[in-house]
Amino acid sequence: MRQRKLAEAASTFFNLPMAELKSKSRKQQIAWPRNICVWLANDAKIKKSEIGLFWGRDRSFVYNAVQKV
To answer: In Å, what is the CA distance from 41 to each residue of 6, 49, 61?
Structure first.
C-alpha cells in the first residue's frame, strides 16, 4: 500500500505513466525515478523482498537501487 502511494507520487512528479515506471526498461529517464521510489520505500523500512515483489524483481535490485541513489 505504501509502496503504491510512493510509486504514484513519483509517477506524477516525473510525469511518467505507472506502467512505464514498473516496466523492465533501463532507460535513464525511467530507471532513475524507479530507483528513487525504491530508495524511499527502503527508507520507510519496508522489507527489501516486499519492495522487489512490488516492482517484479528480486531483492538484489533493491540493494543496487539504494546504492545508486
So the answer is: 7, 11, 13
Mean pLDDT of the chain: 93
Q: How many CB atoms lie within 10 A of CB 69?
A: 14
The span from the CA of 50 to the CA of 17, in Å, is 22
* pTM given for the model: 0.89
Residue with cell 515483489: 53
Which amino acid appears at position 49 of this protein? S
Residues 6+ apart with CB under 8 A from 55: 22, 34, 38, 61
Instruction: State phi, psi for 22 to the nearest 5 degrees.
Output: -90, 0
d(Cα 45, Cα 17) in Å, to the nearest integer? 25
